[in-house]
Amino acid sequence: MTEFTTRTTSPFRYDIVGSFLRPQELKDARAKFAKGEISQADLTAVEDKAIIDLIKQEEAAGLKAVTDGEFRRSYWHLDFFWGLHGVKHVNLKHGYFFHDEETRNDSAQLEGKISGENHPFVEHFKFTKAHTAEGTQVKQTIPAPAQFLEEFLRPENQANAKEFYPNQEELDHDVAAAYHQVIEDLYDAGCRTLQLDDCTWGISVNAFANLKKKDPNADVSQLEALQKRFLKVNNEAIANLPADLTINTHVCRGNYHSTWAAAGGYGPVADNLFAKENVTAFYLEYDSERAGGFEPLTKVPDDKYVVLGLVTSKSGELEDRESIIKRIHEAAKYHPLDHLCLSPQCGFASTEEGNILTEDQQWAKIKFIKSIAEEIWG
C-alpha cells in the first residue's frame, strides 16, 4: 500500500475554496441595512452570529482549515479592493458579463494613491480566529493583486487609473506594496494560511482561445506580456514574507449564480502561472470540459501541490464517485499523487447571491469530497 504524506498545513487532502451560501437571516439583514432600516452595528451582530454558526458547521464537517464564508462581503473581490486606501466604490453602466447573465454593476475606482494600512479584513480575520477551535487553521481568502489590476483594464476604469498613475510601473508597485502591507498585518494577527483568488488566468486562456479560433497564427504577444505583468505583481506582493505563512492561489473561470464567464485549458498560462508563481499550491477549476485536460500540470514543480476542483459548486447534484476517483488518478499521470488534493472547483457563493443549490447540498458536497479523499490518501 502506498504511504502518503500527512498534511498538517494547507492545502489539505479534502479542502474548500472559501465562500459559503449566505443564510437567509444574513441576506435579510444586508437588504435592510441597504435600505437604512438597521444600523451597521445591527448588521455586524447578524454577521457575527452567522459566522460563528458556520465555523461550528465547518469543524463538524471535519475541515482542517475554515473560513468566515466571506459572510461580511458582497463580492469575493470588490469588498477587499474597497478596503484599500485610495480606492472608492462606484457603479458602472454594466456589471460583469457571464455566460448566461450580467452581474450587478459595482466596481472600484481610484481617488488617490493606493496603500494597505488598517484594512478591515484584518479585524474580520481576528474575529474568525477567536471563534475557531485550537488546532483548526483559519484560511484568509483575498483577491490576487493581478485581479485588482484587471479591474482597471475594464474600459470604464482605464482613464481613472491613468489620472492617478500615468506610469503603469508605479501603479503595479503600489498595488504590490499595499497587498504586502495587508498580508503582513494579517500575519501579525495570527494568519498562517492565505489564499489569493485569481480569475485573471481564466480570462487569459479565454482570450487565447478566442484569438486562436479566429486565426491559428494570431499574434498573442500582448496577452503574454499581460501574463508576465500579472505574475510580477503577484510575486512582488508575496515576496519576503515569514516562512511559516503558507500562500496558495485559486484559479477560476467565473462563478456567479451557477454560471461562468470564461473557458479554455491551462496550457497558454502554464509556463507563467504554474512554473513561476511563488505559491505553495494551486486550487484549480476542473469540474467541466471548460478547464481542458490535465497535461499542463506537468509545468507545476513536483514539490508544489495541486488541489483538483473536480466537484462542482454550481449544482447540488453529486457527481459519480468512481468518475471522480478515476480523474484523480488520471491527473496523477502529470503530477505526483502525493501532491494532489481534492476540493470544489470554487466557492459556493462568490457573491452574496450564491450558487443555485441548497445548504444541505452544499454540505453533502463537502462530505462527498472528504470521503473520496480519505479513500485515496487515507
What is the secondary structure topology, with strand pairs?
Blueprint: H1 24-34, H2 40-60, E1 65-66, H3 78-82, E2 85-91, E3 106-115, H4 120-130, E4 137-143, H5 145-151, H6 155-164, H7 168-188, E5 193-198, H8 200-214, H9 221-237, E6 246-251, H10 267-270, H11 273-276, E7 281-285, E8 305-311, H12 321-331, E9 340-344, H13 359-377
Parallel strand pairs: 1-4, 4-5, 5-6, 6-7, 7-8, 8-9
Antiparallel strand pairs: 2-3
- Based on DSSP secondary structure assignment, what is the total number of beta strands? 9
Strand order of the largest sheet: 1-4-5-6-7-8-9
Residue-averaged pLDDT: 96
| CATH hierarchy, class | Alpha Beta
Beta content: 5-15%
Helix content estimate: 40-55%
Biggest sheet architecture: 7 strands, parallel
Distance N terminus to C terminus? 10 Å
* Parts with pLDDT < 50 across at least 5 consecutive residues: none
**Tally of discrete structural domains:** 1
What would you say this structure looks like, in words?
Keywords: Methyltransferase, Transferase. Residues 17-352 form the Cobalamin-independent methionine synthase MetE C-terminal/archaeal domain. Its EC number is 2.1.1.14. One of its GO terms (molecular function) is 5-methyltetrahydropteroyltriglutamate-homocysteine S-methyltransferase activity. One of its GO terms (biological process) is methylation. This protein is an alpha/beta fold and 378 residues long. The chain has a single domain (24-377), classed as TIM Barrel, CATH 3.20.20. It contains 13 helices and 9 strands. It has helices spanning 24-34, 40-60, 78-82, 120-130, 145-151, 155-164, 168-188, 200-214, 221-237, 267-270, 273-276, 321-331, 359-377; strands at residues 65-66, 85-91, 106-115, 137-143, 193-198, 246-251, 281-285, 305-311, 340-344. The strands form 2 sheets. A 7-stranded parallel β-sheet has the order 1-4-5-6-7-8-9. The chain has a two-stranded antiparallel ribbon with strand order 2-3. Helix 12 links the parallel strand 8 (305-311) and strand 9. Helix 1 runs antiparallel to helix 2, helix 5 packs across helix 9 (221-237) and helix 7 packs parallel to helix 9 (221-237). The chain is globular and about 60 Å long.
